[in-house]
Amino acid sequence: MFEHLSIDEPFDSVEYSERSNQPVTSGVRYSADLSTNEGEVRVATAMLFLDAHRLRGVAQHVWRMYLEGELDPMAASLTTNSAIDVMRSIQRDFDKLIPGRVDLNEAPCHACLYLPDQQPSIARCPHSA
Fold first, then answer.
1. Against a cut of 0.85, is the pTM above it?
2. What is the largest CA-CA distance in the chain?
3. In a domain, 64, yes or no
4. For residues 36 and 91, what is the distance between their CA atoms, to the nearest angstrom?
5. At what angle do helices 38-67 and 73-97 cross, to 10 degrees?
6. What sequence ranges are listed for the domain DUF6604 (predicted)?
7. Whether 45 contacts 95, CB under 8 Å
């Protein structure tokens, strides 16, 4: 059934390993513009706040499960702490990509306006807590 297929030598042969140690050069140089414009900053800020709202929703759901007796309090606590750590990591990455361009305590949270279960209130917004 497979007699028409050819068998190739494995990649760890001497010929392949000698070629793989040599650097690949093409003579072509590429450059990238890593600057961010105002639109990209706004989108990144909106996505950061949306992530905050989603993680907050996960934490609320977990504690609701605890109140209904479906989940152990230790599991709810661990999940909440993990969500907080994830959000801190996301915020650190945001600060590295857009250093000093956005004051997250002053920026408007568009997720409060567009999520169906949210009221446009600063008091409920997780980034203002």
1. no
2. 72
3. yes
4. 17
5. 180
6. 1-95
7. no
Q: Which residues contact 48 (CB under 8 A, 6 or more apart)?
A: 90, 91, 94, 104, 127
pLDDT at 86 over 90: yes
Cβ atoms 84, 95 nearer than 8 A? no
Q: Which domain holds residue 61?
A: 36-128
State how far the Cα of 43 lies from the Cα of 82, in Å rounded to an integer: 25
CA nearest neighbour of 106 among 128, 129, 84, 126: 128
Structure-block tokens of residue 34: 């890593």
The answer to whether residues 23 and 36 touch, using CB atoms and an 8 Å cutoff, is no
Q: Has residue 5 been placed in a domain? A: no
CA distance 105 to 87: 15
Beta-carbon contacts of residue 125 (< 8 Å; ≥ 6 apart) = 49, 109, 111, 112
| Domains: count for the chain | 1
Q: How far apart are CA 50 and CA 56, in angstroms?
A: 10
Compute how many other C-beta atoms are within 10 angstroms of the C-beta atom of residue 113: 10
Tokens, residue 75: 């599991």
Distance, CA of 59 to CA of 65 (rounded, Å): 10
